[in-house]
């Protein structure tokens, strides 16, 4: 593999980490920023910490033949491969894979041909299953979830309830209020949430008790997490 030079590490920041505030980020409005490794960039939606994040939700983009040096995830890692194939020494994770890597897990991520992942760092509790969880959403059994919708359950614990939905064109849900924060990520298509259109790569997090109405004119695939996950203030 070709040697790749490093760039500067992330300085300490806190952005969008107040769960009492609703955050709406339209797909494409947040630029990618460099990581310490050339060819790897991230689009940050929420982050607390420096290069080793106390909490982070981002899209990370790997150019062909780019990589990160071996590292540990003190608070675990959750990701969906959006494009291409994400890789590490344990396997390949093509587009449509959902993966949870355990707390204090280590790996050396890379991508031979380039990829994009939606990734959440340091949001798993210490007691969660210490084995890697892999779901191939391309071949998994999605279940009907009312008219014009199917759902695939991804994870449930006292800290979160996480699913992904496929909505057909013309889908419209009744207004819903959740008793915890509600996070949405538009994987593809365009979702209309509370009257505004959000294209793919949009990220939204609603404060507890916010009325939410979701519909789509043309169809969409949407990741939804109810709950904060395990909210750390330090590692």
Automatic annotation (TrEMBL):
Could you tell me which Gene3D superfamilies the record lists for this protein? Jelly Rolls
Instruction: Supply the SUPFAM superfamilies for this chain.
Output: RmlC-like cupins
- Which superkingdom is the protein from? Bacteria
Occurrences of domain ChrR-like cupin (ranges): 26-124
Matching Pfam families: Cupin_7
Identify this protein by name: Anti-sigma factor
The organism named in the record is: Veronia nyctiphanis
């Amino acid at each position: 593999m070709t040697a790749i030079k490093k760039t500067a590490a992330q300085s300490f920041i806190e952005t969008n980490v107040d769960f009492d505030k609703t955050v709406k980020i339209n797909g494409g409005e947040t630029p990618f920023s460099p990581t310490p490794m050339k060819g790897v960039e991230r689009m940050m939606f929420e982050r607390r910490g420096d290069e080793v994040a106390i909490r982070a939700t981002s899209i990370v983009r790997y150019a062909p033949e780019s990589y990160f040096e071996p590292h540990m995830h003190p608070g675990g890692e959750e990701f969906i491969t959006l494009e291409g194939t994400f890789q590490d020494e344990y396997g390949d994770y093509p587009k449509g894979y959902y993966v949870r890597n355990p707390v204090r897990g280590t790996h050396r991520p890379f991508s031979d041909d380039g990829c994009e992942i939606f990734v959440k760092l340091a949001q798993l509790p210490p007691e969660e299953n210490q084995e890697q969880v892999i779901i191939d959403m391309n071949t998994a059994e999605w279940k009907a979830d009312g008219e014009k919708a199917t759902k695939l359950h991804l994870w449930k614990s006292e800290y979160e309830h996480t699913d992904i939905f496929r909505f057909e064109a013309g889908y419209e849900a009744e207004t819903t209020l959740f008793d915890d924060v509600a996070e949405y990520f538009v994987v593809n298509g365009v979702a209309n949430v509370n009257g505004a259109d959000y294209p793919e790569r949009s990220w939204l997090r609603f404060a507890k008790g916010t009325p939410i109405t979701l519909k789509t004119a043309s169809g969409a695939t949407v990741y939804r997490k109810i709950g904060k996950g395990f909210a750390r203030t330090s590692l």
